[in-house]
Write a structure and sequence with these properties.
Bound molecules: zinc ion
CATH topology of the largest domain: TIM Barrel
Shape: globular
CATH class of the largest domain: Alpha Beta
Number of domains: 2
Strand content: 15-25%
Radius of gyration: 22 Å
Largest sheet: 9 strands, mixed
CATH superfamily of the largest domain: Metal-dependent hydrolases
């Protein structure tokens, strides 16, 4: 027995860790929310082997294959973006001054319909590249109806952690080119689940993606709820985004959007309810009771003139609120730092019922983009914080810039003073996917060129170009 303990101890002490990140200011987001100065993070394979504070004995750190000196830098958990459409990355800048429903009908549906599988691959890869460059390591990605395999291939190639849903829509208000019958929609989603769920050592996962209540039949939504219960797959759905949409739901069902989704079994711990701008008090109560998750997408909500999600009221009701960037067609970038800042600023707008200026702090916002996001995706034991045993998903920020000096309060600096350009190095699943702003898994120049030419062809094919 003693010999066994001795062997185990030797093994722990002499393991050759693959990476040590030392001397950084580490924002752990662990349960105590510790911030460690001059700490070391030891990574072995895909996991964090240890987090060693500078005050602890430095001999505890085993020799690493690679050592990164993070002096003067901040290490945060990789950001978790709970709502993006990378399929729309090639639509960036296509339009302005439209509300949700005409925006979908005039631009988004025709452009998604015009895409082939290589377009979807290129668009998704470009989106993931932008997200990694701005510090996102995990995302919940709602794709279009077709070619979703291409998004999984892109995520597999670049190394991001992605939970991907194919859009499901079976109603007549959807153009024929994107409409499926109910059984096809279910069958296609299950095909993706069998092929991709837990691929790349669990880095890729499948979600169910009924796009929004109006686009889906009650039969489809009922079956989605059932499959989610049977398989454990989460459900990613837009909800109560726009006032006309909610009015249409009331006319059709005699109920508000979230009330109806609740009747259908789609308001629960496995639900990502995206936007939730227009909620009654009863609906907030239902979301809280069922432990459902809300994804706040402030840039998209402001650009499409949808309104503002009542985050302070949701937080008062103990709802798990997360952040999403939505798509490049309505944001028009995928930088979580920009949406974190906006999420904080819009929460302080006076006039919202029951809002106090101090009700949402910089720490609350960082929680939304890390631990809350991880919980919403059912991955709270794996990602969202820098802790021993968790996945090594890390974002390193270089804050030695004029725009982030002086460093008086690190959380305020992260939320209010910086953006994705401060991200220097990104590690996902223990692999360095960007180092010193150089993407290691794709050729960025070639990707940019391909994205431009593919985007121009989509615009032409969809007939949505500017008439000049
Ligand atoms: Zn969306």
């Amino acid at each position: 027995m003693l010999l066994l303990i001795a062997i185990k101890t030797i093994r722990i002490w002499w393991i050759l860790a693959s990476l040590e990140i030392k001397n950084g200011l580490v924002i752990t987001m662990d349960p105590a929310r510790r911030i460690l100065k001059g700490a070391s993070i030891i990574v072995e394979d895909d996991r964090i082997l240890n987090v060693i504070a500078s005050s602890e004995n430095s001999t505890e750190a085993p020799a690493a294959d690679k050592v990164m000196d993070a002096a003067g830098m901040i290490v945060i958990p990789g950001l978790v973006d709970c709502h993006v459409h990378t399929v729309q990355t090639l639509f960036r800048g296509i339009c302005d001054n439209l509300e949700l429903l005409p925006w979908l009908q005039k631009y988004i549906y025709p452009m998604e319909s015009a895409m082939d599988s290589e377009d979807v691959y290129t668009s998704s890869l470009a989106g993931y590249a932008e997200m990694i460059k701005s510090g996102t390591t995990t995302c919940a990605d709602m794709q279009s109806v077709r070619h979703t395999d291409s998004a999984f291939e892109a995520a597999g190639k670049i190394g991001i952690r992605s939970l991907i849903a194919k859009s499901m829509m079976d109603q007549d208000i959807i153009p024929e080119s994107l409409q499926e019958d109910t059984s096809t929609s279910i069958a296609e989603s299950m095909k993706l689940y069998r092929k991709w769920h837990q691929a790349e050592d669990g880095r890729l996962r499948c979600m169910l993606g009924p796009r929004f209540l109006q686009g889906c039949s009650e039969k489809l939504l009922g079956e989605v709820a059932q499959i989610s219960n049977q398989t454990g797959m989460s459900v990613h759905i837009h909800a109560a985004e726009n006032s006309t949409e909610v009015k249409n739901d009331i006319e059709k069902y005699g109920k508000r959007t979230v009330e109806k989704l609740h009747d259908l079994g789609l308001v629960g711990a496995k639900s990502l309810l995206v936007h939730c701008v227009h909620l009654s008090d009863r609906e907030i109560g239902l979301i809280a009771e069922e432990n459902a998750n809300v994804v706040h997408c402030p840039s998209s909500n402001l650009k499409l003139a949808s309104g503002i999600c009542p985050v302070p009221r949701l937080m008062q009701s103990q709802v798990n609120v997360t952040v999403g960037v939505d798509g490049a067609a309505c944001n028009d970038n995928l930088d979580m730092f920009k949406d974190m800042k906006l999420a904080s600023l819009v929460s302080k707008i006076s006039g919202q019922p029951q809002v106090q200026v101090s009700s949402v702090s910089a720490m609350n916002i960082l929680e939304m983009a890390t631990v809350n996001g991880a919980r919403a995706l059912g991955m709270q034991d794996e990602i969202g914080s820098i802790e021993k045993g968790k996945k090594a998903d890390l974002t390193i920020l270089n804050m030695r810039n004029a725009e982030t000096t002086p460093m008086l309060d690190v959380l305020n600096q992260i939320i209010y003073s910086t953006d994705g350009h401060a991200v220097k190095t990104v590690i996902i699943d223990g692999k360095i996917v960007m180092e010193n702003r150089h993407l290691t898994t794709v050729d960025e120049d070639a990707l940019v060129q391909k994205a431009q030419s593919r985007a121009e062809k989509i615009v032409e094919k969809a007939g949505v170009g500017k008439k000049s």
